[in-house]
Amino acid sequence: MSTATYAGVTVELNDEGFFEDPNAWTPEMAEEMAKAEGIDALTPDHWKVLEYMRKEYFEKGTGPTVRVLGKNSGVDVKALYQLFPKGPAKMAARLAGIPKPKGCI
Length: 105
Description:
CATH architecture: Orthogonal Bundle
Structural class: mainly alpha
Order of helices and strands: EEHHHHH
Helix content: 40-55%
CATH class: Mainly Alpha
Largest sheet: 2 strands, antiparallel
CATH topology: Arc Repressor Mutant, subunit A
Oligomer: single chain
Strand order of the largest sheet: 1-2
CATH superfamily: DsrC protein, C-terminal domain
Strand content: 5-15%
Number of domains: 1
Radius of gyration: 12 Å
């Protein structure tokens, strides 16, 4: 386990860089984390995906897969890969402050 500081708040991360406590996340943290991942600014489509990821996690206990994201988030799979080029489900989960979805490598 390690820690990182985003938007002036120190949070605990697991060995893969995912938040230990999703409740510690803030939108400002997501903006800062996105910049570190090479995303200059989060667009409305980014936010649509991040909000959907968090909603699914808090309702079901895990984030959605890429297929579910493409089907239900309002952003199609092709666009997901453009928004989150390092792997949509995994990268979006990290930016949304939730654990890695089941089924992600």
